[in-house]
TrEMBL record:
InterPro entries referenced in this protein's UniProt entry, alphabetically: Ala_racemase/Decarboxylase_C, DCO2ase_PEP1, De-COase2_C, De-COase2_N, Orn/DAP/Arg_de-COase, PLP-binding_barrel
SUPFAM superfamilies: Alanine racemase C-terminal domain-like, PLP-binding barrel
GO molecular function, one term: diaminopimelate decarboxylase activity
Signal peptide: none
Pfam families: Orn_Arg_deC_N, Orn_DAP_Arg_deC
Organism: Paucimonas lemoignei (Pseudomonas lemoignei)
Name this protein carries in UniProt: Diaminopimelate decarboxylase
């Protein structure tokens, strides 16, 4: 391969020994035997641990880190994450159950998301979780349900900011949004919350997701703190918590680079003493999903056929878009690009051929790699899709085509 051709970002989490990729210290071929079948997802416990450790060392000490369960709700993984982070963010009653099952104190669980039903709110209030209020209806519903249960609900107000997170893969704030209440309407709702029997914890301001531009993230954090100070100016007491969102991205595609945490660390170091002085030692939390877990996971699938169609080599595997919609390019991508992939049992082969890797579904959308240079692969080989620890299985249409579901293991 030519040396200056753009490539995928280096994947440093997983060692190679004797030509085989190792996940969680186990050769993938051996792991496949242990799991008993393919396809499966494997998440590397030590990669999760060192990720959070590295992140903490790049940020000011007292920044809290919350894990967004929707990125990967596998119970064993969520359990492991609770030993590393300061809180869990959930977005449904199902995720709330997963979070509560870990034994984390309910006060460290926050429940956000539009359209929370009375049934979900009742469960969250009964559990003692912190509810992120996202509309005037939710303010009144939480108050009414709290009274009927004889409980004083813990709440945050989620604010749709009056700015956007630039160069974000997914914008979730700024302009008209279904998330949170517009910043312009927040002061009136904060006054309303104060009048009710609600235990107000603070503000939640989330502006976007999958961002690899550290300066854009730092700039959004700067504006987030400004907005939080403005909104809390005439509150009768200071907030206890500012959840300033996250949006930290990971490199998926050729040419993308890992996020540089320095500008973010600098911005947080500058702001933290200032908001803590002005807001009575307020705590500041980041909520992150894919940044914490995305790089620690792989999807493993086995080659079941090798075909040549008009000169193009196709590997047909037993897994595909029904387990990994994102790698197939169908989860929010405009132009399809390849995730980083490898042939896990041929890591040291220097010979290359151009391969397309497809799944078993009867649709051309079921593609895991389009004309990628890889070692020549045969039936029985194991294809690994990297960067698969977040928005993998739970974000995929598993029932599509009625193939068996994928297994998930934490190793
Ligand atoms: C989805 C979501 C997250 C996590 O986003 P990532 O890109 O996985 O970090 C964080 N906060 C909120 C409110 C979300 O909806």
């Amino acid at each position: 391969m030519s040396t200056n051709k753009p490539t995928h970002a280096p994947l440093m989490h997983f060692p190679v020994q004797d030509g085989s990729l190792h996940i969680g210290g186990i050769a993938v071929t051996r792991l496949a035997q242990r799991v008993g079948r393919t396809p499966f997802y494997a998440y590397d416990r030590s990669a999760l641990t060192s990720r959070v450790k590295d992140l903490r060392s790049a940020l000011p000490n007292d920044i809290r880190i919350h894990y967004s369960v929707k990125a990967n709700p596998m119970p064993a993984l969520v359990q492991h994450m609770t030993s590393l982070v300061d809180g869990l963010d959930v977005a449904s009653a199902g995720e709330l159950k997963t979070a509560l099952d870990t034994g984390i104190p309910a006060g460290q669980i926050s429940f956000a998301g539009p359209g929370k039903t009375d049934a979900e709110l009742t469960q969250a209030i009964a559990a003692g979780a912190v509810i992120h209020l996202e509309s005037a209806r939710e303010v009144d519903a939480v108050n009414r349900i709290g009274q009927s249960l004889g409980l004083r609900p813990s709440v945050m107000l989620r604010v749709n900011p009056d700015f956007e997170l630039k160069s974000s893969g997914m914008k979730m704030g700024g302009g008209p949004r279904q998330f949170g209440v517009d910043a312009e309407l927040a002061p009136a709702l904060l006054r309303r919350i104060e009048q009710l029997d609600l235990d107000w914890h603070g503000l939640h301001i989330f502006s976007g997701s999958q961002n690899l531009n550290a300066h854009a993230i730092a700039e959004a954090q700067d504006k987030t703190f400004e907005l939080a100070l403005r909104l809390t100016e005439d509150a009768s007491r200071a907030p206890r918590l500012l959840n300033i969102g996250g949006g930290f991205g990971i490199p998926y595609f050729v040419g993308e680079k890992s996020l540089d945490l320095h500008p973010i660390g600098d911005m947080l170091s500058r702001w933290l003493p200032r908001v803590q002085a002005q807001l009575d030692q307020v705590k500041v939390a980041l909520e992150l999903g894919r940044y914490l877990v995305g790089e620690a996971g792989v999807y493993v699938t086995r080659v079941v056929d090798r075909k040549i169609s008009r000169g193009q080599v196709f590997l047909v595997t037993d897994g595909g878009m029904h387990h990994h919609l994102a790698a197939s390019g169908n989860l929010g991508q405009v132009i399809r690009k390849n995730y980083p992939v490898a042939i896990a049992n041929r890591m040291q082969k220097t010979q290359r051929e151009v391969l397309s890797i497809v799944g078993p579904l009867c649709t051309p959308l079921d593609m895991l790699a389009d004309r990628q240079e890889l070692p020549p692969a045969q039936i029985g080989d194991l294809v690994v899709v990297f960067q698969s620890g977040a928005y993998g299985l739970s974000a995929s249409p598993s029932a599509f085509l009625s193939h068996p579901p994928a297994v998930e293991v934490l190793v």
